Amino acid sequence: MAPLWQSGAVHAYRYAPVDAGRQVRSDGGMSARVRGAGPVTAALLTVVVLVTGACSGGRGGAVPDPPADVTGVVSDVDSAAGPALTGASDDYYEGMALLSEETMVVGTDGREAPPESLEPGADVEVWVADECEESSPVRCVVEVVRIVG
Questions:
Q1: Is the pTM higher than 0.85?
Q2: How many CB atoms lie within 10 A of CB 11?
Q3: Fewer Cβ in 10 A, N or C end of the chain?
Q4: What domain of life is recorded for the organism (predicted)?
């Protein structure tokens, strides 16, 4: 059997590679191990995000941050199309249908409400998607209708 110093074991201890998570300080010492988010931390963070999103009902039951695109009054001018917007703060949206598959209705209490809560005469704030189909009345994807009175 060869002596320990010839086996290379001593060499391995003398020149041990620097751990990837540690760095050499300016005084020659080693810094503490720098640790990233391990798989357990990542899994817990994912669970928290998913549970928070699920409890909030998708959009969170809240209206978007920017001001409403238009305000007005609910009118049921065409029962086939459902409630429409009248007295619009911007004439471009006058007569626009308020409900589509993507529309979320928010009641006066700030919670999501059923579409049936859009009663004629109710004051509303409306957020629409970026693009509208040019027609008369204009056809927009209405994202949120908040009942304010």
A1: no
A2: 11
A3: N
A4: Bacteria
